[in-house]
Design a protein that fits this description.
Chain A is an all-beta fold. Chain A has strands at about 5, 10-15, 20-25, 30-40, 40-50, 55, 65-70, 75-80, 90-95, 105, 110. Helices cover about 0% and strands about 55% of the residues of chain A. In chain B, strands 2, 4, 5, 9, 10 and 11 form a six-stranded mixed sheet that branches. Classes of the chains: A mainly beta, B mainly beta.
Chain lengths: ~110, ~110
């Protein structure tokens, strides 16, 4: 298995632009998590899905952030419009619920100028 | 919700010494406690985990202990090596729930 796949690996954009981050979880995993990591705030859970349904989005910072999971093999995290303070590494992780272990993707390093 | 506190935030040890990182949690319903290692520029990766029905688990130089009554768990690394240098995160989770992560401990092993 290729593990959790994220794209792009790096994204540099200008303030105000729309950013879309993509994630493909490990096949057979039924929970998917989006995290944001910064030096100041550490590893923050933004939202997680179980069986493609959003369960907890309390970590989504504001309405500029949205996430979807249209099917079991794909999820997106969108920021519109982006701001410099959104600059961070965004990780996607997936888990087969009964096994509990979360497998992280390689992350997307986002820089908003 | 769950609150996980991790100490210390930084830890420096001499190669060959032991390192201990401690975490406390608030939700008595949490039953799964993983530890992740994150090297610079890399993703967090699971190194060991423990479930609430076990008090201790060991894997070579790494061990984790859990005290359910006191709601704390610890990571022990023996015979540390320079390649153990990384940021370590603890987490607590209920079944089918989200994991709450500690703030991380930056471990530096000096050769």
């Amino acid at each position: 298995d290729a593990g959790v796949i994220q794209s792009p690996r790096h994204e540099v954009t200008e303030m105000g632009q729309e950013v879309t981050l993509r994630c493909k979880p490990i096949s057979g995993h039924n929970s998917l998590f989006w995290y944001r990591q910064t030096m100041m705030r550490g590893l923050e859970l933004l939202i997680y899905f179980n069986n493609n349904v959003p369960i907890d989005d309390s970590g989504m910072p504001e309405d500029r952030f949205s996430a979807k999971m249209p099917n079991a093999s794909f999820s997106t995290l969108k920021i519109q419009p982006s701001e410099p303070r959104d600059s961070a590494v965004y990780f996607c992780a997936s888990t087969m619920t009964r096994d509990n272990e979360q497998f992280f993707g390689p992350g997307t390093r986002l820089t908003v100028l | 919700g769950e609150n996980v506190e991790q100490h210390p935030s930084t830890l420096s040890v001499q190669e060959g010494d032991s390192a201990v990182i401690k975490c406390t949690y608030s939700d008595s319903a949490s039953n799964y406690f993983p530890w992740y290692k994150q090297e610079l520029g890399k993703r967090p990766q699971l190194i060991i985990d423990i479930r609430s029905n076990v008090g201790e688990k060991k894997d070579q130089r790494i061990a984790v202990t859990l005290n359910k009554t006191a709601k704390h768990f610890s990571l022990h690394i023996t015979e540390t090596q320079p390649e153990d240098s990384a940021v370590y995160f603890c987490a607590g989770r209920r079944n089918a729930g989200k994991s709450t992560f500690g703030d991380g401990t930056t471990l530096t092993v000096k050769p």
